[in-house]
Amino acid sequence: MKRILVPTDFSDHAEYALKVAAQIARENDSEIMLVHMLELPHEASDAVGSGSDIPEIMFFKNKAIQNLDDLMDSPYLDGLNVSEAVHFSKASEGITALAKKHEADFIVMGSHGASGYKELFIGSNAEKIVRTSEVPVLVIKNEIPEFRVHNMVFASDFSTEIRRPFTQLLALAKGFGAKLHLVMINTPNSFKPTHVAERIMTEFLDGFEVGEHSRHIYNDINVEKGIINFANTMNADLVGMCTHGRTGFAHFFNGSISEDLVNHTVRPVVTFKI
Description:
The chain is built from nine helices and ten strands. The protein is α/β, with parallel strands linked by helices and 274 residues long.
């Protein structure tokens, strides 16, 4: 993990994410790219593109730079390789474009987690980042003084399309030194006998060097509750899942999973695009 992109709007939750990113960077000798996306009205964007210095634009830009400078002085960033930048762009488009341009390995972002993704630190755009990012996205909900991943839950249907993001998951789990708890959620609407579920998981894992892990079939009334309840049972430090990149978390498990999963769990969540 060489480069971690951390978007910020200077809120408390965004700083929680930055603190976690700092801990990860320190453990992995990673670079942090700290960015603020300044989204402007269309006419202002045209002015920026033409090189004009509109007073209002410069005011917000200078204020953002000052806020970034203040963050850069935070003790928890001491000794780390951190760059800062303000970009004029729509948040979702700008962040994913920056991650691709600078070959970021990871995005760490904050979330209030109270009222859906509309309450994420960059508003409804955050859902688009999770949905479109080609690299894993770690969503942090609370301040975590010591971010350690001993137990990591990965919930999936273990279909063939999960194989590529599963490789990313394994690399992440190895980097954290985490034990993986792999789980298939059984629901009344998509029930599989235990022997069938076990066979699917066994066949899926064939060819992977998974390391220390456990396998589980967990029954619940729906997928969201199943993941949350299983993660609580395992006292998970991190919950991993996949998204298709079409309509957020819809189509996960070949069905439909709502964004309530992220809102209803206080645990950090990492997503991988299929």
